[in-house]
Specification:
Length: 326
């Protein structure tokens, strides 16, 4: 059964980063999950919850708005359980993710953006409309589904605590829906209130401002996409109580760090994973790591999903074949 292939992912020490930053840096490798990303965890919890509460009948369609990874988790699990999957992705989604979704059996629609339910051209708006107008269709809605946080509270947090033998002092994660940082943050803070829970988002995203001021900025500006992270609205799955700080990074330094990391370790990091690497490089002084610290970097997926965007010199990432629905 698919569920045995979700969770219990390895944590490995990264000697290159540990030496570079004079501390102990470990990486939780979520690309070992069934669909090769952390998002299998909330996908499974949301599907299980919908079935248990009879919000969908056998053979029905699970609908999701996703940068690709949640969509893939939903598709793989839904298909195995005898359901269909309809996934709304934004046009910034990598071609690799789109191809994988199609191969997994998802029906996909490409939308203009993923700016939330208030935007009529967003993935979320289209997903909600679709589920509301089609029989036996259920919108899992990772941005507002409590099972998203719960999946990480129940699985990812305890795994990190056990695998580091309770030594973790800092947890760094990209923030998209906020489910990972909120669920893991809550669990780790219950074990150890002095743990630092730090998020990373692209420059121009609004969650750093929201965390400091508890309101969105007056002016919301477009920002360079780093797939999976960064928002111009505050998702319900983001719990500011569990987060101590959010660092912002530039897309360019993220790409540069992905390439440096590949050169030094031979590993292709995912796009948002490389954003964590950029945050270490750009905010080193502020982070103030010491040899006594145990720092956990959460890598939600793998660089193979972003070869054309991150590692190919001739990257033309807005592939001409994409048709955007309006
Ligand atoms: C590649 C990647 N990184 C980071 C995230 C953000 O995780 P979360 O939605 O739990 O904040 C996502 C979410 O889809 C993702 O796909």
């Amino acid at each position: 059964m698919t569920t045995t292939l979700i969770g219990n992912t390895p944590i490995r020490r990264c000697d290159f980063l540990s030496t570079l930053y004079c501390t102990n840096i470990f990486i939780k490798e979520e690309f070992h999950n069934l669909g090769m990303s952390a998002k299998d965890r909330p996908a499974f919890f949301m599907i299980q919850d919908a079935i248990e509460r009879q919000r969908i009948q056998p053979g029905g369609t699970f609908v999701e708005a996703s940068s690709g990874n949640t969509g893939l988790g939903i598709t793989l699990i839904a298909k195995q359980l005898g359901y269909q999957a309809k996934i709304f992705v934004s046009k910034s989604c990598s071609q690799e993710k789109i191809n994988t979704l199609l191969q997994a059996g998802a029906e996909i629609e490409i939308c203009e953006n993923s700016n939330g339910l208030h935007d009529f051209h967003s993935t979320q708006f289209h997903a909600q409309s679709y589920a509301a107008t089609h029989p036996n269709a259920y919108f899992t809605n990772q941005y507002y589904n409590t099972q998203n946080i719960r999946a990480h509270y129940k699985t990812t947090g305890p795994e990190i605590w056990e695998q580091t033998a309770g030594k973790v002092t800092h947890f760094l994660s990209g923030v998209g829906t906020g489910g990972t940082i909120s669920g893991v943050g809550r669990f780790l803070k219950e074990q150890r209130p002095d743990v630092c829970i730090w998020g990373v988002e692209p420059k121009g995203s609004i969650l750093q401002h929201y965390l400091s001021h508890r309101r969105t900025p007056e002016k919301v500006v477009p920002f360079d996409a780093i797939e999976g992270i960064g928002r111009n609205f505050v998702p319900g799955s983001f719990d500011p109580q569990q987060v101590d700080h959010i660092f912002q990074v530039e897309q360019e330094s993220t790409k540069a760090m992905a390439r440096l990391y590949r050169e030094k370790t031979g590993i292709l990091s995912g796009f948002s994973s490389a954003a964590l690497l950029a945050s270490l490089a750009c905010h080193r002084e502020e982070m103030g790591f010491t040899p006594e610290h145990t720092v956990l970097l959460f890598f939600p997926d793998h660089g193979s999903r972003y070869v054309s965007k991150l590692y190919s010199d001739s990257a033309d990432f807005q592939t001409a074949t994409k048709t955007v629905i309006r």
